[in-house]
Protein 1
Amino acid sequence: MGRVGFVSLGCPKALVDSERILTELRAEGYDLVRTYGEADVVVVNTCGFITQAVEESLAAIGEALDQNGRVIVTGCLGERPEEIMARHPSVLAVTGQADVAGVLAAVREALPLDARPFVGVLPVVGDGRGGALDRGVKLTPRHYSYLKVAEGCDHTCSFCIIPHMRGRQASRDAADVLYEATRLVATGTKELVVIAQDTSAYGTDLRHRTSDFQGRPVAAHLVPLVRELAEMGAWVRLHYVYPYPHVRELIPLMAEGKLLPYLDVPLQHASPTVLRAMRRPGGAESHLRTLQAWRAICPDLAIRSTFIVGFPGETEADVDLLVEFLREAKLDRVGAFSYSEVPGAAANALPGAVPEDVKRERYARVMEAQQAVSAAIQAAKVGRTLPVIVDDVGDLPGAMIGRTRADAPDVDGRVLLDTDGTVAIGDIVEARVTAADAYDLHAHALRVVPWRPAVPTWGTAPHREGPATSGR
Ligand code: SF4
């Protein structure tokens, strides 16, 4: 049996690519192993977005070569094979991003399998269409999963080369997405994290054509897709949502509790001048109007956003505007990045490069302003009872680590829970918040919330319900 090691780098979209490759490798009969020493060949799924990610990817390839020696490279950096081969000429093969077939061909060549003894005994689950679906290899914990609805992007943001690397937007039919979601929920996923490069634009390339899901037509459009997902009984979280008018139709579902009251909206800046140079629409005023309209429908809506500081041509006045916007917008979560050049991006040719020390100072100003906003939002949660999904165990006996509905995996805050020791990873509990800092909450778990998905479950843990604290 051929043994394959796998290193997965980059964003959730790359993680989904890794899951697909691993699922196919396993279906072909390859054994997936966890250490370089056990592997006959190592696949490295790279990120190639910003300079730092490129360096990390090249270092990961170097480590795999040192530790194992037989390495296949795929992913975003794989779109620039000359860069990889210049640094690491001994890699066996390089394929581009989302090229599952290319990776499989390279693995087969490096590691031919005479027989595939395990294909017939893979666990399967019904797909609702009379067929059978493999559970698939997941790189996230069992209780949450990324659901990628489209590849590529039709925008031309000047700092970004994703359209060049991943191509124009190519959406999946709604039925494909929904059957995958059904399978995930049936096999234990309690939180579906919907991702794409531009989730709001889902289906435009398909002209919103319909496909058949359990006997009814569903359009490839974010609103009907999310309405269907919301009926499955899992938490549904939306990432990379651009503030198109139709997004407003989803907010009532959040107010009704059918959809997590959470939106990740990458705004990137508040200054209309900088946004224009980024080739993105809007500015502080239009951002604020949109947020106000959404919050009028769902006051509990948590909004996460990302911003770039130090973009070419950015002035002190632009940064003042951004800081003022953050104070007014009161976003729940903010990620800020200092601008760095991406090879091949149009923004590299823009005048007005901002010196590194100025970028650092602006970054610090923005983060300081947001920290005050975030601390106030967090402090207001003390004393409330909130649902928390449990991701991990903590350091102390009975301690667990979870997230509220306002916190996405990996990028947002955590809840440090104390429990009576009966709470398990993957449980959703009600917890009373006892303390807060700018990012994390402390809480007592009160009880495990019954888990009753609306799809037939397969292979999930038995339902558990009961007390969860020592009564302190
Ligand atoms: S930053 Fe702009 S071009 Fe890049 S993926 Fe996002 S929307 Fe598309």
Protein 2
Amino acid sequence: MAGNGQVLCREEDRTSMGVPVSQMWTVASYVIAQKLRGRKQYPVVLMLEPLFRCNLACAGCGKIQYPAHVLKTDLTPEQCFAAVDECGAPLVSIPGGEPLMHPQIAEIVEGLVARKKYVYLCTNGLLLKEKIDQFKPSKYFSFVVHMDGQREHHDFAVCREGTYDKAVEGIREALQRGFRLTTNTTLFDGADPKSVREFFDEMMDLGVEGMMLSPGYTYDKAPDQDHFLSKKKTRRLFRQILSNRREKWRFNMSPLFLEYLMGRREYKCTPWGMPTYNIFGWQKPCYLLQDGYADTFDELLRDTKWERYGTESGNPKCANCMVHSGYEASAVNDTFGSLRGFAATVRATLFDKYNDPDVDDDTPMTPTRSSGPLVQIGAAPDA
Ligand code: SF4
């Protein structure tokens, strides 16, 4: 591990959640300031999509189905900076597409770090080793490598053999150079909880800072419509995965959001908490749906019919959605919205291992492909 200041960031400036203390402080003071100002709708994470093209074509992705002229278009660094300044969120996530294919991605990251934004650059890791010289380690900057499980699961999920090994190569290189790095895992129906738990061990053994998780969302543009999870199945899957937690696991997410995924608490969607900006403008209402675009962030907040969205709205597109872009900001709001929420977060972070004798999760297993019988949302018998 590199012996520089970044190691200090990773080893000392880090909570048991896997998030640097300075980042937690920045988010906490930001949310409290919004509340003191009486703001009901405020962004926590800006989802900045600088391009849609990718070097993979995953079956569960809804972002790469655009026509060629759209896939060729990039946001400029200036457009990115303007969106970040306009929005004001303390965290910026850069998904895509594959951001490392953007010719000016390093300039974009540098400009955001200079603004003291905590930047999470999401990548499938295939270009990580090749492009890493363009970036500098910083407590404000983290790579987020998309890993969908153990080797066979991951390669199957992203529809290409060898991607797991290539991504792990990139992870090792980034960690060796002192970068912050987390993983991001999307889970679909048919995921094997035991394999996912083994995968968590593998990632923590590699030395990643923390892990992020989300259930898959039924993108109507995705070619594979059969692997998405109903809410009931999501809760059952996450309870199996996240109960009886192992000591070494760290999650770079709100612990209350993880409890929500396990079915231990309920939240309403707050899609304005993670607004999306891309080449079309500010996407209504969230990262997942495209019910039009606004020219400005204020217009997005003002003109979106928010009551039409969220599970409780009756909107069929939201019926089975439990994804972080809708519900993690709700959990963050809960943490800083009441003493009860704050105490629950402290308990979840420091003490709770979620012991559950009903969940048989530690039997050694042989990895299998996540290709079992799958159920489509809406047609799910237990939905
Ligand atoms: S429930 Fe999901 S799909 Fe619906 S608005 Fe919220 S995040 Fe978007």
